[in-house]
What we know:
Elements: H1 2-14, H2 26-33, H3 37-49, E1 53-56, E2 60-63, H4 68-91, H5 100-115, H6 118-135, H7 139-159, H8 169-180, H9 184-195, H10 203-210
Antiparallel strand pairs: 1-2
Helix pairs in contact: 1-3, 1-6, 1-7, 2-3, 4-6, 4-7, 4-9, 5-6, 5-8, 6-7, 8-9
Organism: Belnapia mucosa
Keywords: DNA-binding, Transcription, Transcription regulation
Protein name: GntR family transcriptional regulator
Amino acid sequence: xxxxxxxxxxxxxxxxxxxxxxxxxxxxxxxxxxxxxxxxxxxxxxxxxxxxxxxxxxxxxxxxxxxxxxxxxxxxxxxxxxxxxxxxxxxxxxxxxxxxxxxxxxxxxxxxxxxxxxxxxxxxxxxxxxxxxxxxxxxxxxxxxxxxxxxxxxxxxxxxxxxxxxxxxxxxxxxxxxxxxxxxxxxxxxxxxxxxxxxxxxxxxxxxxxxxxxxxx
Length: 217
């Protein structure tokens, strides 16, 4: 139940019900989820350990702040992990079937993107990149990526708040094609291009505009 509560909080952030910097009130979240405050309290502590929630004296729990500089720093770490994942995935034994899971995750993303729910899109995007890390066969690498995944979810969710900003399905396919072909240089270049859209996106502007609207709209 704690994990479910944590996922619900992240999903609410992706849908714009919570914005970066918003206070997260334990009693209100418990009421909205229809559960007791205990699992919500534990979920908030879990999210705090993952950097999604920040506890400030006299101000309570708040959703992480999102700034352009902070996103750029997060993406540098994320890109370094995923580039290592590409190199190690290509070094694994086997043929193109090594990337069947990645292809399945790409297909799921393409389907979910048509539904238009920001929370589902964020989850599907995260699953695709987690699958890339899983293909590396490097368990610590995957664990490190997963430790960042909920911060990425908050960032990606904010990007969805003004409507679809991009359609990465073709980029997913291009990356998979390079991996299946065993072309490391092309795979790394396509991955870098795929990730670096975040650097040209003005998250601070979107957040400022989003704060002018009622929550959830």
